Amino acid sequence: MYFHQVSTTLFYLGTVFNSNAFRLRTLQLTLQLRHLMSQLVPDGIKIPGVSDTSAFVNWIVNLGITWNEKVTIENSKLGGMGLFYTPDAKEDGKEEKLLLRIPSSSKLTIYSLLDTLTKLKQRDVNCFPDHQLKESSLVVAFLDILKPKTETLFLISYILAFSALSNDPESPLREYDTYMDILEATFVPDETTVSEESQFKECLRSYMQWLYKEYTNLSKQLKDRIPDFDVNEMLPFSKYYQLFQAVRSRTLEIPRSLENESESSSNSTEFTTDVSLVPILDFVNHSSDNNAYFDIDRENNDIILKLERLEKKDKKFEVTIQYQQEDHDEDFFLTYVNSLADQGDGQGTATSETTIVWITTTINGLSTVMSVLYTQTFMSTYTDAAESVPSGTIGLGSISGTVGGPRVYDQTTVTNGGSFFYSIPFGIAGISLLLGML
């Protein structure tokens, strides 16, 4: 098995040192990169959001991602792009195959994005102390207004803020440009992509209406806080919706050792999971009949994708993983649920009470896994049980007795004999005494 990785350092050295040796090495690395590009992304394949395939492959290499030479990224019958594997004649399918290795540092989590925010704050203080509109201030404003309550929503809030800050060519946020382009081009269904009226389309319509209310609130509050920033221009609703859905569709729960990540976690038995965006791994589509799985390498916390032991295959096939244990069609809501629930305070400031769920449906002939707004309705039966239910005897058969009479329980009174807690008068004064206020 061979894994491909190429360093691009000498590309830059070749421009500095005018020597034949460096020019030759630069040419060799260029040819090697083109070879890698043609193997990972075959000729004629267009990845949405990627305008330069060589730059895309170079970005993957710089992230430290390595891949099996038999792996390719191609168009999928399941929708969008997918990861494929081409076996050779000698493979018998009895061994697991390592397909991808992705450094933990390449994934996007609430922790890695917090590190990016810290860098932005330091840069703003050092380079732009007098600027009114600072990148870090805008990111913080997004987080404060959107008030994310789950890891997924934190990721979405960061990505939305990063998208609105795309003007400064020297910003640390430029490292995310390639991935942001992919997110902005990821297929996400909306009203226009579902042709027939159905309960699914109505649910999707309600979801978009809810998102628009959230967007309107964000726009208004940002205008009040930062008058010079026009969110409608920098982040129109179409892009807001696109990124919101794209992030939701690409997140994965990645295991993480609770041991110190700088040390080996091979002996650790305690793990948690981080909701993460993982470049390249998120090209792998979902199937209830999956043939691969992802995990972490306990030696170095790399994220790895492995092909399971399979029956021998003699031609190219798509690699799939399972996002959740259960898989249903659009008539059922899946158990993989993320909630967005805010209770109103009764003072006219009620916000959304919503639940987002994953469903599997078919759009334009393609199986699609997506998140939608869950709404629950109940059929009205009786408004008053006493008047609606007729009187009579039911279910007694040959047993004599009564039905529906009051049940009386024995009562025990606890007195204050010797117990300090029972002897306290539980009025306002008693509570104050417990709190040490009197």
TrEMBL record:
GO terms for biological process: fungal-type cell wall organization. This is CTM1. Residues 69-324 form the SET domain. It comes from Candida oxycetoniae. InterPro entries: Kre1 (IPR031452), SET_dom (IPR001214), SET_dom_sf (IPR046341). SUPFAM superfamilies: SET domain. It comes from the Eukaryota. Coiled coil: none annotated. Pfam families: KRE1.
